[in-house]
Amino acid sequence: MSEAKDNKDGGHGDADLASELAYVRSLAEEGRNAPLVGGRFFLIWGAVIGFTALFIYVDYASAINLGLADSFAPWLVAIAAGWVLSFTVGRRAGAKPGALTIGNQTASSVWFAVGIFMTLFWFTLMVVHDNYTDAGMAPYFLFSLMFPVAFGLYGVAFFATATAARLGWLRYFSYLSWGVAIVSLFLLNSPQQLLVGGLGSLACAALPGLILMRREPSEII
After folding, report:
1. CA-CA distance, 103 to 37, in Å (whole number)?
2. DSSP SS3 for 136
């Protein structure tokens, strides 16, 4: 009788263990498929860069020129605003459920790396932009490489993010980003590149940012 009781207790133990394993497995699945919580970063940078580029383009094209089109001031303000907003408003993303999943960690790392590189690239161009005038290159020509390089990196980052987070639809923004990068190459040193870059930033960064923010969890995954 004691042996039967032990077998009965053992059966309950196996059932409890199986239940625990199933629970842990479900948590792992939920964590792996947790929604991305970094949409606000896309929205911040897409809006800041997009509207700055459009503002400068309008300054170029308008009859009343404000004199800002040939100035670094708007871009300095945009870059500073982007980083300040990222470290203030953007940091709330770290408190969202699922922020520590591999998808979110990968997305955060790859986009942070893109931001660091593009910032360093821009400041480096401020130093070397007139180093090649002897070769016949206009002093500020190299700055027209910013949008092709940026959108090329956007495409790579979106592709990696889509794979890590299992969001196949993000790959369409990779293709769109690469398309904008190619078009920008045909508009080097042209005011129209600002128009393409501005609209491209809104479409390739701000738009997916809005979509992701609408899908973010509030309290539970």
Report:
1. 10
2. coil
Instruction: Output the CA torsion 37→43→46→49 (10° steps).
Output: -120
Using alpha carbons, select from 22, 35, 28 the residue that is nearest to residue 218.
35
Task: Identify the DSSP state of 180.
Answer: H
For residues 139 and 146, give the distance between their C-alpha atoms in angstroms, rounded to a whole number: 15
> In this structure, are residues 69 and 56 in contact, taking their beta carbons and an 8 Å threshold?
yes
3-state SS class at 116: helix
Structure-token match 């408190």, residue found? 95
> pLDDT by residue (tens digit) across 188-200?
989 999 999 999 9
Q: What are phi and psi of 108, to 5 degrees?
A: -60, -45
Q: Whole-angstrom Cα distance, residue 5 to residue 117?
A: 67
Under DSSP, the state recorded for 203 is: I
Rounded to two decimals, what is the model's pTM? Answer: 0.79
Nearest C-alpha neighbor of 214 from the set 86, 39, 30: 39
Q: How far apart are CA 160 and CA 113, in angstroms?
A: 12
> Helix H segments across 62-144?
73-88, 102-128
Residue whose token pair is 């009788």? 1
